[in-house]
Every structure is written in structure tokens, then in C-alpha cells.
Specification:
The complex is a heterodimer of chains A (656) and B (186). With 656 residues, chain A is α+β, with helices and mostly antiparallel strands. Chain A has 3 domains: 189 residues, no CATH class; 33 residues, no CATH class; 335 residues, no CATH class. Chain A has 19 helices and 23 strands. In chain A, the strands form 8 sheets. In chain A, strands 3, 4, 5 and 6 form a 4-stranded antiparallel beta sheet that branches. A 4-stranded antiparallel beta sheet of chain A has the order 15-16-17-18, with no helix packed on it. Chain B is mostly helical and 186 residues long. Chain B has one domain: Potassium Channel Kv1.1, Chain A, CATH 3.30.710. In chain B, 59% of the residues lie in helices and 6% in strands. In chain B, helix 7 runs antiparallel to helix 8. Classes of the chains: A alpha+beta (656), B mainly alpha (186). Chains A and B meet through helix 12, helix 13, helix 14, helix 16 and helix 18 of A and helix 7, helix 8, helix 9 and helix 10 of B. Chain A: Pfam families: F-box (PF00646). Chain A: This is F-box domain-containing protein.
């Protein structure tokens, strides 16, 4: 330890009031925490130490809490070292603390005394474990108790420098302007650079060369970061930002307008091609085949964007395909379905194979009625094709659910489809009462989720589930859309309304439903911030859930404590309309990918909603698992699978 | 396996190497010689494997001009430790097909191995591993670096990694706006 500029500055700096512009030397070297003095002197005066005081927090310049004795030895060795101590001693838990001894309460401490203190051996009885940070509220109570007891407040309180004051907390007390505090902190950081590291963190004198990592290595490193860190560190430098993005990345920073069509990348689900003509994602079982048939058709085996994309996906870290896998892509309108398989062993797509339905499983579905493409046809419960007026989100042009009857048996897989013009089942409710339907695979069975409007309330039926009443009323007439994703024994149902931007501030909600069949009501995600509608003034601030995918991110630790809306609000960010285009349910955590439209852009019309996504940026939100209902569900009832198409998947597997 | 630094010692080990032909002698940019078992080198490094197979291994020390002696020492150290640890088939396969095989978490000894390195040594090791095509070592070192990055703010990263901030204020603010959520994590 070296003592830097000890004596000179000590003499110069008067102890009482620091000017507001006091530099680091002034603030830090002069201020002897009077409570330390008091404590020390009390100890010298024969007071028992036990139970007297606790020095509860010391922060050094690196923001690390250091044990109290470190601070004291630093002081002892010299004040140059003390420059590192940002922080503070909170004197707590001592009945005597409100009345420091007389001489320590004197508004000035003479230099001799101080230095004698500083050169005294450190108090040996300081609790080693007393590094817990106390809230400054406590400190304030303490402080006001000083005032209340009309004692001369100790010297340290008069200082205007937040750092030396003993307020190490980032939110300083009001008398410290945050600007000032920041400035002091940064100056401290500089000073800390100048002196050597006395803090536990090892500092390098020479600049680290790690910043010069080659691009390839940088990519590898960044790909290992959790999403939040990854996105945050894009702000480090241009080069880092330009580094190839792992999946679930944000689209380029430029903000495409709704009417600037062609170059718009659309929603980038992982690695959807930038120039794809119609980037409509297709849901797939177990996640991640977000692509369209046009993309596949347009892609030749040699220069296929799809192949490149899926290959790229397979090496990405967040959505990793483990081991030998196959990606099954099911294409086409329902009567003429075909299937393409990506084999990881050959690393190539196999030829597109037309699918043939085995009709023995669904007697009712054999009559396929061709319809005009302007209308939508949905899978219904008993296997008939029905034209409805249901809402259909653009991102759910095709939906399939692939289910294994008994776990791992690939040959017994059943594929379910929900298509724009598919053959499906008799309706559950009369036409014009069903609004949206989705199929979801969950627990080895497929479920149809039907959002219907009946008896003046919208009701959500996951076979047996019902929406909570408040939600039912909210969604009545809102022409909401359901999107589901299943995981383990739960189904997450995202209900979103196409009318969110209109006069009805309906928004959307998410449900987490356990299709146990025991008649239990659907459980709302508690505090689920997926969709928020601001009251009154800011009708633009909405989030709307448009689609749900099941993903298996490798690392989904980016868990947020509140929704981005709340955060943006806190930050005073401009209002923005958002749309959640992707929801991931992984383990017990829910991740939602949001697309934001920039503020001021006009609200998407219905046509646009059904067309392309033209959105500005992507936000990944995680909802901590604590928000998910913790209730253990019984294994899902073996509901009869929707015996629509039992497709001989044969050798095909699916993404895990 | 020994790591030799003096020339006399190198001479000796070369004789030993000639005796049993089991090792490869590598020469760092500053002329120091290191020995590593042929089997481990071929298994861990695609470049060395190619050189061994192609017969371009020099008995007097294969010149690796891009790698300094410290980094090469670490590499050899890693190879030896790897040879001593239980060889697992998964490791081999992961080093063969990096693109599809999942990255396995570093094992305990690998963790310790990279933890003791300074920043610069780590940097050199990454470069060396990249040059030699050692996927596993690259994985481990990159993992270590990303561990170092985790939970840090861009400012801290810039400071620790000595990166110049080339954003303008407006751009920074834009990034912050765009990714406000990420700045509120941890």
C-alpha cells in the first residue's frame, strides 16, 4: 500500500464543508467518517464493543463491497488508497450511535487527531461479515434522529459530496444531485486507474487485448451469452454490434415504415431471410420451423436460403438442435400437403414428399370441399372442413401440431394441421360464434383451442377450460385470436384481439391452461405483462399477442422483472405500439418476442395485420417462472386426439 | 510430457522423441521447443492432425510462427492435461462437428485451466487455438470470455477489454431505447 498525496491534501482540505465542486482528493481524503471516530473513541473509552456498532457497508470504486477492515487498513496505510473507497459506513444497531462523544461531534476535527486515528491499528473486533448493504432509508432515519436529538450533526453530513458522505448507494439522498454523484464516481474511476488496484478485482495495468478478438472468435463468445447480456453488449462498439447475431435477434436498427415495403425484413425469427417475399412464419411442433412454403419453393437445393437458414439455426446457441435430428417441414394447403425433411446427418434437405392421409382414422374428413381462397377454413373438432368467419392471424397461416402417442415412438406420430383451406371437422358452435381456433400439442395429445362467442361473452375452450369472467367480457366482440403453445402438461393460450388499436382498448391476455379435464378454470398468468393497454392518454401503447411458438432455447435466462412497457414508461420513452409475435415457453419460463412499431406510425390496418409484419425492433421479454402458476397439474387427460390426419411420418422425427 | 525451454533440454527431448516417435515437436515464434504427444495433437487440433497426416511435421520442431511461446506452452499444457483426463467420445465428436454438436460445458479441470490465465494469455490462447483449429480449446476459452462478459455493462466491458467506444451519443441513446429491457437486467 502506498500513501499517495497524503499530507498535502489533508492540510489543504478543510474538514467541514466541501465545496460542491470538490474533487476526488478533497472529498475522499478529508472526510473521516466521524462515526468511525466516534466508535473508535468509544472503544478507547472503555465501552464494550459488542453490540455497539456495525459498519455495514463499504463500497469501493469498483462497486464491490469490501469488508470493513479493508477500508480501515486502507485508511491506515494512506489516503491515496482511500480514494478507492466510495463508500460508506452505516452506523447501525448501536444505541449510542445517536450520541457520539463530544469531541467527535465537533464540527471540525484537527488533522493530528485524524491522522492518529488513521494510523491506529484497525479495530480488531469489526464484524467480518458486516458487508451487507443497508438501505439508505435506514440511514435517513438515523440522520433524522440526529436532527431530532438536536445534536450537532456529525461532520460528514455537511459535506456535499455524495461519495464522501457515506452514501454509497446509487440512489443518493436528495441533497446529492445524481449528476454530481455520477461525476464524482467517474472521477473516482479515473483516480482508481491512476493508483493501483487495492480492490479485490484484479486490474490490468496494460490494456487488455481481448478487445481485439478476431471476428470469428467474437462471434463465438457472443453466441454464448445469455440473450439479455448479448443485447446489452451490442452497445459496446460498432464492431460488436455488427457481429453475427444469434437467433432471436433484433432486426436492423433502422425503422421501416409501414408503407416502405420491399426491403423490410419482416419479423426475423432467428434467421428468416431478409428479402423473403412473404415472411410468414409457420408454426411447427416443438418449435422452430418458421418459414413459408414460398421460401422453400423458391429455394433450390444449391443456393437455398432455407437450407442456409436452418443450418444456421442448428448451430445457434439459443435454439439448438441437439444431436442427430430432423426437421420436418409440412407445406401446402391441406388437401395437398407435402413434407420436407432436413436431416442433420446429411446436413441437407431431402426431397419434398407428398403426404397421404390415412383415412381409416377419420371417417368424417374424407369429404374435402374446395373453397375460395378468400375464405378461411379451419380444423374443427370432428374432422370436417368448415368455413368460418374466424379471425386468423397472419402468422398462423398454417399450423400443425405433431404429437407422439407414446413418447418416443416416431412411427406413431400424429400430425394435426390447421390450414387456411383445410378439411376439418364439424364445428363446435354455430358459425359466427367461433372466432379462432388453434391446435396444440401437449402431453402427448393434441388439443383444439377454440375461442368462441356465446351468450354475449367470449369464451375460451380448451376442451374444458373457460376464461375468467372478466376476461370473457373484455373480449366480447373483440374478434380475438387465440394462439397456443404447449409444453409439458400445460398449454399457454395467447388471446389477442385484432381490435386493439381501435376504439376498444381490449388488448390481449395470456392464459396458462392445464388441460386436465377436471373442469378447472383456466388460470390467468398472474401479472402477465404480455399485453397492456394504457388507460386514456396513450392508446398506442399496446402489446398484442399474435402468435405463439414453442421453442427450446438453450439458455433463456433473460428474465425480466417487469414488462418492457413498464420500463419504457419509467424511462419516459415515447409511446409505441407493440405486437408480440412470438412466445416461447421453455421449462417454466415464458419468453415473448415482441415487435414494436415506432411511435407515430399509423396503426396497422386489418389488411396489414393480415399481411406482413412491418415492425421496427424486437424485444425479448422473459417472464419469470414465479409468474406462472405453481399448481401441479395432474397428467393430462387422454383426450381423444383429433383424428384428422394420421400421417405416416415414418422415419421422420421432429425437433426436440 | 515436459515442457522445455532451454535449448539444451530441447536437444535432449528431441533425442527422446526420435527414440520413440510418439511426440510432435512444436516451435514457437520465438524459437522455443515444446513437445506434445502425437495422438493428443492429432485428436485435438485439426491443423496438427493434417500436418501429421501430411507428413509435414519437422522433427527439429514444427514452426508455428504465429504462436508465441507462452501461448504454445498453454496449448501443450492443455493437450497434456487433456490426454491425462478421461477421453470422452463426446468431446471428440464435438470437436469434429462443431456446427451440430452441442457445446459441452467445460469440465472442472478445463475451467481451472482457463481461470488461471491472465487476459492477455487468454487472448493469445484463443488465437492459438483458432490457428491450430482446436475446437474444444476454442470452446473452452470462448466460454471463459463470455463468462467474463456476463452481467457487465457495456461501459465495464469497454474498460475491461480496452475497447474504444465508437458510437455517437445519439446512437448510444438509440440502442438504449431499443433495448431498454436489457439494461435493466441483473
Amino acid at each position: 500500500m502506498r500513501s499517495g498525496r497524503a499530507s498535502g491534501t489533508a492540510a489543504r482540505s478543510g474538514p467541514v464543508c466541501m465545496p460542491r465542486t470538490a474533487g476526488l482528493d478533497d472529498t475522499l481524503q478529508v472526510q473521516t467518517p466521524p462515526l468511525v471516530l466516534a466508535w473508535k473513541q468509544r472503544r478507547a473509552a472503555g465501552h464494550g464493543v459488542t453490540g455497539h456498532g456495525r459498519f455495514t457497508a463499504i463500497k469501493n470504486a469498483r462497486g464491490l463491497t469490501a469488508p470493513s477492515h479493508t477500508h480501515l487498513t486502507g485508511s491506515q496505510a494512506g489516503r491515496g488508497q482511500q480514494a478507492k473507497v466510495v463508500g460508506c459506513l452505516h452506523y447501525t444497531n448501536a444505541p449510542h450511535a445517536t450520541r457520539p462523544p463530544e469531541h467527535s461531534r465537533a464540527p471540525h476535527v484537527n488533522a493530528n487527531k485524524k491522522s492518529s486515528f488513521l494510523h491506529a491499528p484497525p479495530p480488531p473486533l469489526l464484524p467480518r461479515n458486516a458487508t451487507k448493504l443497508r438501505s439508505h432509508r435506514y440511514y435517513w432515519r438515523r440522520f433524522h434522529s440526529y436532527k431530532a436529538s438536536s445534536l450537532t450533526p456529525p461532520l460528514v453530513h455537511y459535506s456535499t459530496s455524495g461519495v464522501a458522505l457515506g452514501f454509497p448507494l446509487l440512489q443518493g439522498p436528495p441533497l446529492i444531485s445524481s449528476v454530481k454523484a455520477t461525476a464524482t464516481r467517474s472521477s473516482m474511476a479515473n483516480a482508481a486507474k491512476g493508483t493501483s488496484g487495492g480492490c479485490g478485482k484484479k486490474r490490468k495495468r496494460e490494456p487488455s487485448r481481448l478487445g481485439d478478438l478476431h471476428d470469428d472468435m467474437l462471434e463465438r463468445v457472443l453466441a454464448r451469452l445469455p440473450p439479455a447480456s448479448y443485447f446489452r453488449l451490442r452497445g459496446v462498439s460498432r464492431r460488436w454490434r455488427a457481429a453475427p447475431t444469434p437467433p432471436l435477434s433484433a432486426p436492423p436498427a433502422r425503422a421501416p415504415r409501414h408503407d416502405s415495403a420491399n426491403q423490410d425484413p419482416g419479423p426475423r425469427l432467428g434467421a428468416v431471410a431478409r428479402r423473403s417475399p412473404e415472411p410468414t412464419p409457420v408454426a411447427a411442433a416443438g418449435g422452430l420451423v418458421p418459414t413459408t412454403e414460398t421460401q422453400l419453393r423458391a429455394s433450390s437445393p444449391s443456393s437455398t436460403p432455407l437450407t442456409g437458414r436452418v443450418t444456421a439455426r442448428s448451430r445457434c446457441r439459443h435454439v439448438r438442435l441437439t444431436g442427430v435430428h430432423r426437421v420436418v417441414l409440412i407445406l401446402g394447403e391441406l388437401p395437398k400437403l407435402s413434407m420436407a425433411t432436413f436431416d442433420s446427418t446429411t446436413n441437407a434437405w431431402e426431397d419434398v414428399v407428398p403426404l397421404s392421409r390415412k383415412t381409416e382414422n377419420d371417417a368424417g374428413a374424407t369429404t374435402t370441399r374446395e373453397r375460395e381462397t378468400t375464405r378461411s377454413y379451419f380444423l374443427s373438432k370432428s374432422g370436417d372442413v368448415v368455413a368460418t368467419t374466424m379471425q386468423q392471424s397472419a402468422s398462423r397461416q398454417y399450423t400443425s401440431a405433431v404429437v407422439t402417442a407414446n413418447g418416443e415412438d416416431a412411427a406413431a406420430a400424429v400430425a394435426y394441421f390447421l390450414s387456411r383451406s383445410g378439411t376439418v371437422l364439424p364445428r363446435i358452435l354455430p358459425a359466427y360464434h367461433e372466432y379462432s381456433i388453434d391446435v396444440v400439442a401437449c402431453g402427448g395429445a393434441a388439443y383444439a383451442v377454440v375461442l368462441s362467442e356465446f351468450l354475449d361473452t367470449a369464451s375460451l375452450r380448451v376442451q374444458v377450460a373457460a376464461m375468467p369472467p372478466a376476461m370473457s367480457h373484455a373480449f366480447r366482440g373483440a374478434k380475438a385470436d387465440v394462439n397456443c403453445v404447449g409444453h409439458a402438461d400445460r398449454v399457454m393460450v395467447c388471446v389477442s384481439s385484432g381490435d386493439v388499436a381501435g376504439a376498444r382498448p381490449t388488448g390481449g391476455r395470456s392464459l396458462l391452461v392445464a388441460p386436465t379435464g377436471d373442469g378447472e378454470e383456466a388460470t390467468c398468468l398472474r401479472g402477465c405483462p404480455l399485453v397492456r393497454t394504457e388507460n386514456g392518454g396513450r392508446p398506442n401503447q399496446q402489446l398484442c399477442l399474435a402468435c405463439a411458438f414453442s421453442f427450446s432455447p438453450r439458455k433463456c435466462k433473460a428474465i425480466m422483472r417487469c414488462s418492457p412497457m413498464q420500463q419504457r414508461k419509467q424511462r419516459g420513452a415515447p409511446a409505441a405500439a407493440g405486437r408480440v409475435s412470438l412466445a416461447l415457453l421453455w421449462k417454466r419460463e415464458l419468453l415473448v418476442l415482441t415487435h414494436w412499431t415506432p411511435a407515430g406510425s399509423r396503426t396497422p390496418s386489418v389488411a396489414e395485420r393480415h399481411g406482413r409484419h412491418k415492425l421496427a425492433s424486437t424485444i425479448l421479454v422473459g417472464i419469470p417462472s414465479s409468474h406462472l402458476p405453481a399448481r401441479r397439474c395432474s397428467p393430462p387427460l387422454a383426450l381423444p386426439p383429433l383424428s384428422f390426419g394420421r400421417v405416416a411420418l415414418g422415419h421422420c422425427g421432429w425437433i426436440l | 510430457m515436459e515442457v522445455d525451454k532451454g535449448k539444451g533440454e530441447a536437444e535432449e527431448t528431441r533425442k527422446v522423441a526420435e527414440a520413440d516417435r510418439d511426440t510432435v515437436t512444436l516451435k514457437s515464434s520465438d524459437g522455443k521447443l515444446f513437445e506434445v504427444s502425437k495422438e493428443a495433437a492429432a485428436r485435438l487440433s485439426t491443423v496438427l492432425a493434417g500436418m501429421i497426416a501430411g507428413g509435414s511435421i519437422d522433427d527439429n520442431g514444427t514452426d508455428l510462427k504465429q504462436i508465441g511461446s507462452e501461448a504454445l506452452e498453454n496449448v501443450v499444457d492443455y493437450c497434456n492435461k487433456h490426454a491425462n483426463s478421461i477421453p470422452s467420445a463426446a468431446l471428440i465428436s464435438s470437436s469434429i462437428s462443431f456446427n451440430t454438436a452441442p457445446f459441452k460445458e467445460p469440465e472442472e479441470w478445463e475451467r481451472k485451466f482457463v481461470d488461471r490465465l491472465s487476459h492477455d494469455a487468454l487472448f493469445d490462447l484463443v488465437e492459438a487455438a483458432n490457428f491450430l483449429g482446436m475446437e474444444r480449446l476454442l470452446d473452452v476459452t470462448c466460454h471463459k470470455i463470455s463468462e467474463m462478459m456476463k452481467g457487465k455493462s457495456p461501459d465495464q466491458i469497454r474498460e475491461v477489454f480496452n475497447i474504444k467506444n465508437d458510437y455517437t451519443k445519439e446512437e448510444l441513446e438509440e440502442i438504449r431505447q431499443e433495448l431498454a429491457w436489457a439494461f435493466y437486467d441483473d
